[in-house]
Amino acid sequence: MRAAIPILALVAATPSLIAAAGSGGGTAASAPEAATGGGRPEQTATAAAAELESILREQKEFFDFLQKNATAAPATDATTGATLGATTGTAAIFENAKELRARSLMARYENFIAAHPDEPAVIVLYAKFLRLIDARELANRWFEKADKLLPDTAVIKEQLGAFAAEEGRPAQALPLLERAVALAPETAVYHYRLGEFLAACQPALVAAKTLTRAECDARMLAAFAAAARLAPGEAGYAWRHAESFLDCEKPNWVLALAAWDKIAARTEKPLLREAVSLHRARALIGLGRKTEARRLLSASRAPELSASRARLSALLAKKEEK
User: Fold this and answer.
1) 20 to 30 A from 213, CA-CA: which of 20, 35, 111, 260?
2) Could you report the per-residue pLDDT of 64-86, keeping only the tens digit for each?
3) What's this model's pTM, rounded to 2 decimal places?
4) Within a domain: 175
5) HEC string of the chain?
C-alpha cells in the first residue's frame, strides 16, 4: 500500500503553500519509481512531496510573472480597440507566454492527480489555481470531484457556493455558503463572503421565497458582525459591518451608530475620520438627532466627500421639513 503524501492536511487557505508542501525528509525516489509507485513507501511519498513542492513553486513563479508584467501589459482603448502603450506584438508575446505557462501547470497538476488519486486535497489546490486564472467552469468541475472525496470541507463548499451565486443560482448557493461557515466557524472570510452574498442576492432570495426580507437582513448582519469579531485587525470587515445596516429594509440606527462610533475611536487618518463622521451623521439623521447630525455635516470640509455631504444635507433638510 502506498504511503500518503505527508503534506495534505492543508488546503483551507492559500498562504505559504510551498512551505506547507515542503515537509518530508529522507532520500527522494528516482523519477521512474515516483511515476510508477515503485520503491519503498517512504521514498515514493518523499518523491511525491517533492513533485508537489515543485508544482507549487512553478505556480508561485507563474503568478509572480503575471504580477510583474501586469503593469507592462498594454491597455486597450475602449472605443477604438487600439493597443495603448505597447505594440500588438508585445501583447501577443505576453499572452502566449501566459497561456503556455498556465497549460504547463495544468498538465502537471492533472498528471500528479492521476498518479495520486488517494490525495484529494491536491484536487482542491488545482481547482483553486484554476479559479485564480479565471477558468471558472473547469475549476467548479474539479471542486465537484473534490466534494465527493472530501464531503465536509469548508473551502470546497464555499467555492461551490460562490460559483452557484455567480451563475445566478442563489437558492443553491445559500446552503453551500452557510455550510462552509458551519464547518469553519472561526474563519472570518467565510462569514464575510456569506454576508456579501446575502447583501447582493437579497432581492432574488426574497423573490424566490427562499428567505423573507427580515430573515435575509438578519443573517447578513450576523455574518458581517461575526467576520468583524473574528478578525478585529481587519478594518475592512468592521467597516462593512457598519455599512450593512444601510442594506437593511429597516435599519437599526442605534446599532449602526454604535458600530460607527467604535470605528471612529480607532481611525487616525483625517480623511477616513471625516468619512466616518458622515456615516455617523447618517445614523443620527435616522435617529432623529438632527442638531448633532448638522454639526457633523458642518464640520466636514474634504472636497473628496462633497457628494456625500450634499446627499446627507439634502436628506437632513427633507427630514426637517416634516
Assistant:
1) 260
2) 988 888 765 454 444 444 444 44
3) 0.79
4) yes
5) CCCCCCCCCCCCCCCCHHHHHCCCCCCCCCHHHHHHCCCCHHHHHHHHHHHHHHHHHHHHHHHHHHHHHHCCCCEECCCCCCEECCCHHHHHHHHHHHHHHHHHHHHHHHHHHHHCCCCHHHHHHHHHHHHHCCCHHHHHHHHHHHHHHCCCCHHHHHHHHHHHHHCCCHHHHHHHHHHHHHHCCCCHHHHHHHHHHHHHHHHHHHHCCCCCHHHHHHHHHHHHHHHHHHCCCCHHHHHHHHHHHHHCCCCCHHHHHHHHHHHHHCCCCHHHHHHHHHHHHHHHHHCCCHHHHHHHHHHCCCHHHHHHHHHHHHHHHHHHHC
